[in-house]
Amino acid sequence: MYVCCCNPFSDKAVKAHFDEKAKDRRVTVSEIYNTCSGGAKPQCKTCLPTVAEMVKDHNRKIIPIIPVPGTPDPV
Fold it and tell me: Which of 72, 75, 42 shows the shortest CA–CA distance to 58?
């Protein structure tokens, strides 16, 4: 499925980055977008929530986060 239509890349590209370059480390939305879009900047930005959710899921697998009551989600 396409994640971004302005600078086309798919969920497969995002997952490939996780598997090949970030298997044992946390990543940022900026890193993923920059890598998967070939360095292009977001245009309409409607894809960013999807990328953010994929990053959050990946990062939680790397270092499980224990929520602290009354604090915002750190991811």
Answer: 75
Calpha distance 63→48 (Å, rounded): 22
d(CA 33, CA 18): 12
In this structure, the number of other CB atoms found within 10 A of the CB of residue 60 comes to 12
pLDDT per residue as tens digits for the range 38-66: 999 999 999 999 999 999 999 988 876 66
User: End-to-end alpha-carbon separation of the chain, Å?
Assistant: 24
Residue spans of the domains in the chain: they are: 2-62
Q: Is the pLDDT of residue 37 over 90?
A: yes
- Cβ–Cβ contacts within 10 Å for residue 41, how many? 10
